[in-house]
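Researcher: Last one for today. Full complex below.
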Amino acid sequence: MPRGYAHGTSFRKFGGPEKRLNLLRTLVNVLIKHERIETTFAKAHEAQKYTNRLIEIAKRGTDDAYSRDMIKFWAPREEIQSKLLNDLVPRFKENKSDFTRLAVLSKQYCAEPRQSFHRYAVLELKGNPLPPLPIQEKNPHTLQNVLIAAAQEEMFNKKES
Amino acid sequence: MLLRRSSTNIHKFGKIIFLRESSSLPVNQSSSHDDSTNKNTMFDNKLKQQMSERIPRIEKIEVTYEGRGIADNAVMYMNKHLSTPYHCAMHISHGLAQRGVIALVKPQNNEEQNDEVNQDNVIDNKEEDPSLIYSMNQPLDADCRLQFLKFNMSQATPWHHQQVNKAYWRSCAFILGAITKDAFQTSFSPHVYKFPDISEKSGAFCCDIVLDEAVKDWKVTEESLVYLTKLARGIISKQLKFEPLLVEPEFAMEMFHKDNYRRSEIEKFHEKNPLLPISVYRLGNYIDVTSGPLIMNTSMIFHYVVTAIHKLHSNANVNSWRMQGLSLPEDLKVHHTVWSLLEKRARKLVREDMHDNDTCTSSSSNKENLLKYESIENKTKIYSKATGQWVNNKWASADPTR
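Model: Here's the assembly. Have a good evening.
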């Protein structure tokens, strides 16, 4: 069973399926425009997955009807579409899957609408011109990362041949 | 008194064992099961001799610790030839002592550093750090600056990480060598031939074995691999130290007087670096020469699996096999899905040090389960049903005979 089901809360709802999609669409568009946003952790975590998928679709090209439909839904405005296809796709030529970075901030007290603590996070695209976030990146020289990278390379070469 | 007794023992063994002079074989096929006790006694006696020379005349050396934090540039006065980097780490902090893998030592003379003197002792990386690598149990010689290398370092060059990984790989292969005698029956007459120089990118550490001529058609089964891993786990759970001994080449030749390959290696090393002593390591009952420093303790190991035994066809006279294994330290634990990927890769024969001329076929055809790969680690470790993660100190049956 996926870990989310363990404690009762399976997936995030965000006020309903239609509202959720609209919220995520605005978040993705804003990320592409400004390249760094600060929201609650839940919204940032969900938006990260959708932006990764969108950029992956855009990399495949607009020949496909599926990719055209997806880009039309998720980035309806012209300026964001052009930025996606002209700036981001050539920037992420070499990256295969992860194009974003998530930095988690401390919990902050919100007096309204309910007195509660929310965890905020910063979501950014890789390769942005802003000053860097203080995040510890994965070290590619430690033993387990060396082994994993070598195994991935072998699988990749096998697929090609 | 003790020295006299040991000399008579060696004399006895010298009479019983007759040496063959065939240099084509890497090993003289003689009763090798008596050899480990002989080597152990020699090791102990040499240690006692060295200690008896050093203890009455203790000299002090100045050790400065290069690190980050409160203890930066701390100066310690330690005993020459007696105190090890581990002792220095114990003075500084508990976390350092537990997590430190190997130590970088930069010898410091009171006069200006003479590059001519140090060039013989320097590792062949002139672009990188011109400093020596000591294992944590190796005693310090002179005034120096100490730096500890761990598995997870945030501000370190790739060269530092490579040295740590190499030391870990070497010590895991050393454990493979320690298993071989207990693993096989006496009719197989196993002997550890060599530890080939293989990097981590190939996916597995290797140990080449030579078995008896009569057992050429032995087929490797999954059960034997599981048995070998349980044996290895038995050694690792004892949390033994890798004890080093720095020794002159003549003594090392005497210790390995039956082993042609080791003697040639010792000679080559001596020609390259005539000033350096040869380091002989001991783990429990097993003694061997290594090409570099090993890690401090077997308690750092978390995952350990013997993944494959392949037959090598390179030498027609010799029935040689290659044991392969995979392991990861406790600081760098890995999820079980990732582990099964790595283990699957480690089952293939590692051909890094073989030339293209040598054709070797894999011993048994592993059925490629596309649906699910059953890793050996699952059979030898217990994982908690609550979290789904492996519990560190528990492994599936304490008795390896079951």
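The first strand of chain A starts at residue 36 and ends at 40. Helices of chain A lie at 17-34, 41-60, 65-74, 78-91, 143-160.
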